[in-house]
Design a protein that fits this description.
By secondary structure, the protein is an alpha/beta fold. The chain has 11 helices and 10 strands. α5 packs across α6.
Length: about 260
């Protein structure tokens, strides 16, 4: 089952692949577990500067959970609770990942697929991509951990529209709703995602991690502590800051070291 979640490396860029193309990358419980483990491992790796998250092939990012598994893995409340805990841990692992995450979205991105893609920092899709959460047709609820990330991404009104209607809609509407960052021609999704990841990887990695941390902290209305406020100035004590401003003055490309 490990080969259903692939982790590939190209220098400082890691690519995590939902690798079940014969089922449009539909997620199973073991896939949820391994996906969370992969993100926990990558988050702890200081050599990583960006993670691309995608589905295998170009037909789908993911259509959500494999419905055929419900009879054995989610047929009652107790089973669903255990399955939900695996999903929650993975949602936390992706959402708390220190490194920037780019979702490369081909084709179908619905249900749990949209939940996962929505946890990325940037989401790039093709013009023919389709989105939605039609789980009301299954008598299935989106639990707190899952709906929280959707609300954080698109707001409560849009999240409820998506859940209550259960429509599947196109990339243009997904862009209008704030579900995706960028829509490109289908044959340019991969190249655009790679170029985006490379631009991120070329930047100062400590700065990227700080920006992610600060953006998530500001979701909480609680006032910043003096220590939190001061953290915004810690970059001036890094080697990367000296490398960055000296390269700028010299009109040269900076070679950041993550220190």
């Amino acid at each position: 089952m490990a080969d259903h979640i692939l982790v590939e490396r190209d220098g400082a860029i890691a690519t995590v692949v939902l690798n079940r193309p014969e089922k449009l990358n539909a997620l199973t419980r073991p896939m949820w577990k391994r996906l969370g483990e992969a993100f926990t491992e990558l988050s702890a790796d200081d050599s990583v500067r960006c993670i691309v998250l995608r589905g295998a092939g170009t037909k789908a990012f993911a259509p959500g959970n494999d419905i055929s598994e419900f009879a054995t893995e989610r047929s009652n409340v107790e089973q669903a609770r255990a399955y939900g805990e695996d999903m929650r841990r993975t949602i936390d692992a992706i959402g708390n990942c220190r490194h920037p995450v780019v979702a490369q979205i081909h084709g179908i991105c619905v249900g749990g697929g949209l939940e996962i893609a929505g946890l990325a920092d940037l989401r790039i899709c093709g013009e023919s991509s389709r989105f939605g959460v039609p789980i009301n047709k299954l008598g299935l609820v989106m639990a707190y951990a899952e709906i929280g990330s959707l609300i954080a991404l698109a707001g409560e009104a849009v999240a409820l529209e998506i859940l209550l209607e259960g429509r599947v809609f196109d990339a243009r509407e997904a862009k209008d709703k704030g579900l995706v960052t960028r829509v490109v021609p289908d044959d340019q999704v991969e190249s655009e995602a790679k170029a985006t990841a490379q631009r991120i990887a070329d930047g100062a990695p400590l700065v990227a991690r700080w920006h992610k941390k600060f953006a998530r902290r500001l979701r909480d209305a609680k006032p910043l502590t003096p220590e939190e406020y001061d953290e915004g100035f810690q970059c001036f004590g890094t080697e990367d800051f000296r490398i960055g401003y000296q390269a700028f003055l010299a009109k040269a490309k900076p070679d950041f070291r993550g220190k």
